[in-house]
Amino acid sequence: MELTATTVSVGLFMVFLGLLYWYSVSPFSKLKRIGIKHPKPFPFVGNMFLFQKGFFEGHQELVQKYGRVCGYYFGRRATMLIAEPEMLKQILVKDFSNFVNRMKVVFSSKPLIDSLLFLQDADWKNVRSVLTPTFSSAKMREV
Question: Whose CA is closest to 114, among 102, 123, 103?
């Protein structure tokens, strides 16, 4: 077998296409591995097309079709959707120390990055320890 420039180019192009396909679908096995039901994602974009009507409608559709604990891929990022009140209470109150950080936003500027929604690690724990007594059940009853 003789190697020519054409066969080497075609071979490299096939390797490139294989690697591109692997890169586009490689993160889409996380939810299946942990047993979370989810719609089949499209390469590179995941399930972004579910949210053409809006996030609330897309989430409602997911809960109706896949159950109260399901997931989806927003781009290449795996996201779990929990619509079970007792499980949310367990995660947000009792097991808070295991779920500290929020989603990281890469392209945000200084005022937005310091907002409550995007705080990370020790900053978030500090703000939460200040805010938690404000929303206790006794104070909420007073309101």
Answer: 123
Question: pTM of the predicted model, to two decimals?
Answer: 0.69
Instruction: Give the residue from 117, 87, 114 showing the smallest Cα distance to 103.
Output: 117
Across 53-66, average pLDDT: 92
Residue 102's SS3 state is: coil
Q: Which residue has the tokens 């779990």?
A: 80
Torsion, Cα 93 64 38 49, to 10 degrees, reads -110
Q: What is the pLDDT of residues 29-51, one digit of tens each?
A: 899 999 999 999 988 888 989 88
Q: Phi, psi (5° rounding) for residue 124?
A: -65, -40
Which helix (H) or strand (E) element contains residue 70? strand 69-74
